[in-house]
Amino acid sequence: MSLSDVLTIVGGFTSVFYLLKLSWRCCSGFRQFVLSEFWRVDVRTFGQWAVVTGATSGIGKAYASELAARGLDVVLVSRSEDKLQMVAREIEQQYGRKTRTIQVDYNNGRSIYPVIAKELQGLEIGILVNNVGMLYSDHFAYFLEIPDSEQRITQVINCNMLSVPQMTRLVLPGMIERGRGLIINMSSEVGVRPQPLLSLYCATKIFVIYFSQCLHAEYKSKGITVQCVAPFMVSTNMTNNRTANCFVRSSSGFVREALNTVGLSSFTSGSLSHALQNIALTILLPDWFRMSTFFIRKLRNKAEADKYYKRVWKETLVEKED
Ligand SMILES: NC(=O)c1ccc[n+]([C@@H]2O[C@H](COP(=O)([O-])OP(=O)(O)OC[C@H]3O[C@@H](n4cnc5c(N)ncnc54)[C@H](OP(=O)(O)O)[C@@H]3O)[C@@H](O)[C@H]2O)c1
């Protein structure tokens, strides 16, 4: 056999391998994001109650509402008592489900968990959504530009990271006892790959990914599903309520799609649009370029320009109102 025959065979096998891989990804994407609209897990089978952290706005509020719409009673956990009462009333009136509220500040670290444990006592918790999370700057910022950094670093770690295993510790034993349970952990696309100018935030999000994947592997044989959701941009307070479009999803649309993927994927972008953006980004923005000083400067300049235009826009609006 000549060298060119060997190369032809190797080339053929490689092409078939990649074609099969691509077909498999397309089929599972179709099942995950298209068929799941008609053929999805009944979330009521996990148990009577769902607990949602950071439940008074954005993605958390959307999870709480969608879970209530699908027949669960909901425990809402957040910082502001007024907002908690408002969302609880909305859910009770709209979906006729029971609600409970727990007012805590996740920035405060471990002192809050005995309070949460007491409030959750006696409830059959089937689903936990570890959604709470915060950014530390409203634009792309260098690490040393984090405002009040001494305090803020601890707060971000307490809120984005510590909350996830601590909340899990509280509900997992009951789930294992009943042989079923679902834990949804909210990561982010910027946790999938490193994102300069969001250093601390993206590091907290990869913590969520690894923790979720290992937890799923450890407890799936006990009937526990752990799903990690890593979205791109969703229109919420965190993203200055950008207008929703085919790239930026509305929180309710995003959560509806993401919940449909439960049982089909333990790690998901949450929506078809975000899954496609993930593929596009892998091809168009390789890590070496994203980590380069050139790209970081460009990103930073764009962020500065956006901030400037936003300020001018706001000032113009105020002048017009006057
Ligand atoms: N939006 C996006 O594009 C996007 C993309 C990827 C990942 N994510 C992740 O998705 C999750 C939700 O984000 P979001 O955009 O929905 O955020 P959001 O609109 O800012 O909502 C955050 C929620 O968490 C609560 N919260 C914030 N800090 C808290 C604290 N220290 N203690 C207790 N509750 C607190 C807020 O309520 P109160 O202010 O009333 O306490 C609010 O209910 C986060 O983990 C975020 O990292 C978001």
From TrEMBL:
GO terms for molecular function: oxidoreductase activity. GO terms for cellular component: endoplasmic reticulum. CDD domains: 17beta-HSD1_like_SDR_c. Its main location: endoplasmic reticulum. Keywords: Lipid biosynthesis, Lipid metabolism, NADP, Oxidoreductase, Steroid biosynthesis. It comes from the Eukaryota. It is found in: Endoplasmic reticulum. One of its GO terms (biological process) is steroid biosynthetic process. Belongs to the short-chain dehydrogenases/reductases (SDR) family. The lineage of its organism: Eukaryota, Metazoa, Chordata, Craniata, Vertebrata. This is Very-long-chain 3-oxoacyl-CoA reductase. PANTHER family: 20BETA-HYDROXYSTEROID DEHYDROGENASE TYPE 2 (PTHR43899:SF10), RH59310P (PTHR43899).
